[in-house]
Amino acid sequence: MRVLIDYRPALRERSGVGEYVFQLARALLTAYPPGTTDSPLDLTLFSSSWKDRVQADEAIAGARLVDRRVPVAVLNAAWHRLEWPPAETLTGAGFDVAHSPHPLLLPSRSAAHVVTIHDLYFLSHPERSLAEVRRDYPALARKHAHRADRIVVPSQATATEVQRQLAIPADRISVCPHGRPAWAARTTAPRTGYVLFFGTLEPRKNVGALLDAYERLLDASVGPHNEETLPALVLAGNATDASGPWLDRIARPPLQGIVRHIGYVDPARRREMYEGARLLVLPSFDEGFGLPVLEAMTVGVPVVAANRGALPEVLGDAGLLVDPEDPDQLAAAIRRILTDEALAAACASKGVLRSRRFDWQYTARDVYAAYQLAIEHRQCASA
Predict the structure, then answer these.
(1) Structure confidence by residue, pLDDT tens digits, 212-232
(2) Which residues 6+ apart lie within 8 Å of 331 measured at CB?
């Protein structure tokens, strides 16, 4: 099976879709090693940018890399609006499957089309989406989804939304959950440390409510005998155009000095960030999966997350779920984890156990099966 994956999201700073693309490629190459006589997979990773080149990485060494010097925005506009140029022209090869890691098709003359839809927040709140997403996704996602031969989603929550909002039948959707990182659980939890938020600072992540909750906690001791101070809140993730008000807010009292933004964290340092955290907070309005929750559970970090999207599906009973629009509820959940050592230990233990349900090798096998179904659909449609 000749498979082409659009690898551009993993070109620079791997977060969200970029991490998904990298881990999926790595897992596929591990599950179906190239160069063996019985390997059923021939994987090509496509990259294109005016200034960024694919970085060498042993994890994807078995794939063929095609790197073109075409600006990302230019190629996206041509692909999304003109559906040109086809993959065959850009790569000089033919494929059985062309896989786009976002809702819009990767143009191809003859390959079966597969798209990954992580979530549909851009449909319900386009005004809170990033510029290019806001421009193209709401207008085109439905048409592209109906033309795709298979739709891959990371959770049942997203599958339900794809059926409801895009009118895609369930038998055209493959649920392929993400996997946990290859990290060992920490042996002891820090008695001192920080509260951690991991994610791009965009409106969907609901950072404003988290700052509201932290302001509510500032005036109240979190210790049983009023001797413990509130730990720092660390915001780990890239800033966006929409994050200016939040960054201005944490630079002024009362949050000044207690909340800090450290920007993007390289994958090699992510486990270290979780290691030093007393808990992870992810109050997003919507998540198609929520990789930071799974990463935290893997290390043994208690989690407070929103009761929206796929977060309850991933977290289960291994943490506390809250209404993301209620800062008081969010503050109370943070306080509970910080003050109740037994609860924190129970959440950490349950999280480690639950994280073992998620494995990138399972993801690779599920996605490969989705590719097979896409090819069958394409053949039936052409008959």
Answers:
(1) 999 999 987 544 444 458 999
(2) 213, 214, 216, 217
CB 222 within 8 A of CB 228: yes
For residue 180, what are its two tokens?
Answer: 């946990």
Model pLDDT for residues 221-274, shown as the tens digit of each residue = 544 444 458 999 999 999 998 899 999 999 999 999 999 999 999 999 999 999
Cross-strand pairs, 64? 44
Do the Cβ atoms of 286 and 206 come closer than 8 Å?
A: no
Cis peptide before 71 (omega within 30 of 0): no
Q: Which of the following CATH numbers is that of domain 194-355: 3.20.20.80, 3.40.50.2000, 3.90.76.10, 3.20.20.60?
A: 3.40.50.2000
What are φ and ψ of residue 6, in 5° steps? Answer: -70, 110
Sign of CA dihedral 9, 11, 15, 21: positive
Domain boundaries, the chain: 2-179+359-382, 194-355
What topology does CATH give the domain 2-179+359-382?
A: Rossmann fold (3.40.50)
User: Are residues 4 and 341 in contact, defined by beta-carbon separation less than 8 angstroms?
Assistant: no
Tell me the C-alpha distance between 205 and 185, whole Å: 26
